[in-house]
TrEMBL record:
KW Transcription (keyword) present: no
Entry superkingdom: Bacteria
TPR repeats: 40-73
Stated name of the protein: Tetratricopeptide repeat-containing protein
Keyword Cell wall biogenesis/degradation among record annotations: no
SUPFAM superfamilies documented for this protein: TPR-like
A Pfam family hit: TPR_19
Cited InterPro entries: TPR-like_helical_dom_sf, TPR_rpt
Amino acid sequence: MTTEGTVEAFRRAEELLAQRRPLEALHVLEPVLDVAADKPSVQLLLGRAYYFSAQLRRAERAFLRVLEFDPSDHYARLVLGRTLQRQGRLNEARAQIRLAATMHPVPAYQEALGEINAHIATRGI
């Protein structure tokens, strides 16, 4: 695949994900992964597609890969936290979301932290 073709496929996968068609996005990403699996942006998009198709373990692995490339990626920490939350791993989720909210103190991240804290409090964990 040419560089131009890789970029085009990546953009198409982004569009499909925005249209809530994660399985199609994953299919379009396959050739991109052959040539650019080591790119954080590719792993992040892959993780999001896995997340939205409820392939949570795969999403977790993709987000962890992004964090291997860049431990300061606050968005990767947030979506990793959300992924862990959907798996019922609330304490792990809270740790990631807390880090994300500390790194990037915006209302959406603070709300996510408040939500996870409420879930933990209700379950008595």
